[in-house]
Amino acid sequence: MSSETLPSIGEMMAASVPMARTLNLEFTETTAERAVVRMPDQPDFHNHVGGPHAGAMFTLAESASGAIVMAAFGDQLGRAVPLAVRAEIGYKKLAMGPVTATAELGRSVAEIVAELDAGERPEFPVNIAITREDGAVTGEMSIVWTLRPNK
């Protein structure tokens, strides 16, 4: 593959994470400051009340967090692997139709890389809001990630 055709982070996520493909996730924005991922309304992934299943919403939010981690720390992959450590999700309102997850880092990239430079294994939160098309927040998730140094 030539440098002119490097895949986007969204394309890399879809290629390397089968669940992202299964749920037809659309990576609409991916920067070190913010990642936005949309899940279309799909009856095959509905719950008993006709909205997206809780597991699908978890995967949507986790995928948005992974996208921002890759955008922020992709240049560190030669020396550390990003891993999710723990997650907490709250379902706030009924989600119907397409839903969007917006992820933001809870600490600065520079601070996290400085810890890695100091030989530490930094942990950092990624906070995600899940919204439906009318803008209502249907869920909130926080995932603590780490950069595990390569041995």
CATH class: Alpha Beta
Oligomer: single chain
Structure classification: alpha+beta
Largest sheet: 6 strands, antiparallel
Q: Give the strand order of the largest sheet, numbering strands 1, 2, ... along the chain.
A: 1-2-4-5-6-3
Overall mean pLDDT: 93
What's the architecture, going by CATH? Roll
Low-confidence sequence ranges = none
Which homologous superfamily in CATH is the superfamily? Hotdog Thioesterase
Q: Which bin fits the share of residues in helices?
A: 25-40%
How far from one another are the termini?
Answer: 29 Å
Structural write-up:
InterPro entries: DUF4442, HotDog_dom_sf. This is DUF4442 domain-containing protein. It holds the Pfam family DUF4442. It comes from Streptomyces platensis. The structure is a single chain. Helices cover 28% and strands 34% of the residues. The model has no long low-confidence stretch (mean pLDDT 93). The chain has four helices and six strands, in the order ααββαββαββ. It has a six-stranded antiparallel β-sheet with strand order 1-2-4-5-6-3. It is globular and about 50 Å long. The protein has 151 residues and is of the alpha+beta class.
